[in-house]
Design brief:
Blueprint (H helix, E strand, L loop, with lengths): L4 E4 L8 E4 L7 E7 L5 E5 L5 E10 L8 E6 L10 E9 L4 E7 L3 E2 L10 E9 L7 E11 L4 E13 L4 E6 L10 E8 L2
Antiparallel strand pairs: 1-2, 3-14, 4-13, 5-10, 5-14, 6-9, 6-13, 7-8, 7-12, 10-11, 11-12
Length: about 190
C-alpha cells in the first residue's frame, strides 16, 4: 500500500486490499501562524463549503488591557471593521464574578488581560465564512492563567452582512502579542 492507506477486508475468501481512509468529516489541519510583536495575524484563502477553526495557544500580550478580537475580510484584502453583533461573558477570579461584553467593530472576545505575563488559550469556530448569501457566525471559548488570577470566557456572534469572507484576521486592540509568543493553528471541515 501507499502512505495514508489501510488494509481492508474484502470479505471471507477474498484477498484484502489497501484503501484510503474515508473522510471522517472532522477538522483537518490547514496552516499555522506564529505571532511576533504583531497586533494582527491574517489567515487568507478560505474555501467555500467549509467551517474553520482556530486553536491559539501560548498567547501572551505586551500590555495590560488587551482586547483580542477577530474580523472577517473579502478576497480583495478589505477587512470589515463594523457590522458585527457579538456577545461574550468572562468568569474571573479577580476582581471576581462574571463580566458581560458586546461588540460591533469585531467579534470581540473582550477578555481584559490584567497582566501582560498571563498565558491565554483560545478556540474559535467560524461557521461557513466563504458561503455567499450566508452571514458568517463565530463561537469561541478560552482561558488564561497567571501568578495570581485566572479567567474563563465564552461567546459568539455574527457578521451581519451575507457575503463570502475569504479571510479572517486576529486583532489585538491594545498593544501587541509578545515576540515569539502565540501559535495560531487553522483547521477546516466540510460544512455540507
Amino acid at each position: 500500500g501507499n502512505d495514508g492507506q489501510v488494509l481492508t477486508s474484502a470479505g471471507a475468501g477474498a484477498a484484502p486490499a489497501f484503501e484510503a481512509l474515508p473522510d471522517s468529516g472532522g477538522f483537518v489541519y490547514v496552516s499555522s501562524l506564529t505571532a511576533s510583536s504583531s497586533s494582527t495575524l491574517t489567515f487568507s484563502g478560505l474555501a467555500d463549503g467549509f467551517d474553520y477553526q482556530v486553536i491559539a495557544t501560548q498567547v501572551v500580550y505586551s500590555s495590560t488591557g488587551s482586547h483580542p478580537s477577530w474580523r472577517v475580510g473579502i478576497a480583495d484584502g478589505t477587512i470589515r471593521s463594523s457590522g458585527y453583533i457579538s456577545q461574550g461573558v468572562s468568569f474571573e477570579t479577580a476582581p471576581g464574578g462574571a463580566n458581560n461584553t458586546s461588540g460591533t467593530s469585531a467579534f470581540e472576545v473582550r477578555h481584559v488581560a490584567t497582566a501582560a505575563v498571563y498565558e491565554h488559550t483560545y478556540k474559535f469556530d467560524f461557521i461557513a465564512p466563504m458561503t455567499s448569501g450566508t452571514k458568517t457566525s463565530m463561537l469561541w471559548y478560552g482561558s488564561d492563567h497567571g501568578s495570581s488570577q485566572s479567567a474563563n470566557w465564552l461567546g459568539g456572534g455574527v457578521y451581519n452582512t451575507a457575503e463570502a469572507n475569504e479571510r479572517i484576521q486576529f486583532v489585538n486592540t491594545t498593544g501587541s502579542i509578545n515576540t515569539a509568543s502565540g501559535l495560531f493553528k487553522l483547521y477546516k471541515r466540510p460544512n455540507a
